[in-house]
Amino acid sequence: MRIAVTGSIATDHLMTFPGRFADQLVADQLHTVSLSFLVDNLDVRRGGVAANICFGMGLLGTAPILVGAAGSDFDEYRAWLDRHGVDTGSVRISEVLHTARFVCTTDADHNQIGSFYTGAMSEARLIELKAVADRVGGLDLVSIGADDPEGMLRHTEECRSRGIPFAADFSQQIARMDGDEIRILLDGATYLFSNEYEKGLIESKTGWTDAEILSKVGHRVTTLGAQGVRIECAGEEPIEVGCPEENAKADPTGVGDAFRAGFLSGLAWGVGLERAAQVGCMLATLVIETVGTQEYTLHRTRFMDRFTKAYGHEAAAEVRTHLA
């Protein structure tokens, strides 16, 4: 199964604030916030939602195709992804812009404040999926993640016109999109990804109820933080999957991307939605135990031991035969 993942490619500058953001906010002054946080640590990491997802899929051996735009400073990042099983042959390199950059501060309660510089990501709108499909011999699914908004719309429309199944995954871009854009991006999606807060925001902006949205997508996949994930399909009982036990909680950045990487890999293996969600939750657990979005490692035996403990021997037997 050939899965292309479109979305941002970026570097992450991650900082840690030892206090609580909430303690610094004055209720009657929120209209004129001016704050500076003295942070303890700075980690510069590889990131971007599409690159993060592809990295996880590469570790699982499912050979994802990364589709996005980066700057001329991408060479080292490309080599890293290539070494970890990602097909980077469809990444567009800008001649004038730097690779996108995410700057984020996390407080003691794991709340986050971040800013994102788009840079070369704005050229994602120039990428044609037909060229990608021709290069790799066709596409079975395209996951359309947070990216240049015009690029997201172009990729969605092209998937519809060419009959390519697609997953809608707006994440960070929901905040800047209006209801009309969101309606276009989700209508007809095989999968709709969001967290619980984004789920409510999608309903609020589109004016569609949960039932109406379910009637327009194949499956709605909602991540629930520490409670795991819920998968819904119109006319069927929801599938709910919990998270494995964490060894530590180091950094929540990239946990949602890791879930998607595991879930999409499960789809590529053909193990079914529940198993795919379990793989996603297991991979997400590895990420929350690590600082950075692509700094974790996947040791097959350890992964399967923890997976078996969380989900049982029957589930593990289905997954073990596919894990690279």
Written account of the structure:
It is a single chain. By secondary structure, this protein is of the alpha/beta class. 37% of the residues lie in helices and 21% in strands. It contains eleven helices and 13 strands. The chain has a nine-stranded mixed beta sheet, with helices on both faces. Helix 2 links the parallel strand 4 and strand 5. Helix 5 packs across helix 6 and helix 10 runs antiparallel to helix 11. The longest helix is centred in the C-terminal third of the chain and has 16 residues. The protein starts with a strand and ends with a helix. The model has no long low-confidence stretch (mean pLDDT 94).
Largest sheet: 9 strands, mixed
Strand content: 15-25%
The helix tally amounts to: 11
Series of H and E elements: EEEHEHEEEHEHEHEHHEEEHHHH
| Amino- and carboxy-terminal Cα gap | 15 Å
Helical proportion, percent range: 25-40%
The parts where pLDDT drops under 50 for at least 5 residues are: none
What integer value in Å does the Rg equal?
Answer: 19 Å
How many E-type strands?
13
Q: Supply the helix-strand structural class.
A: alpha/beta
Mean pLDDT: 94
Shape: globular
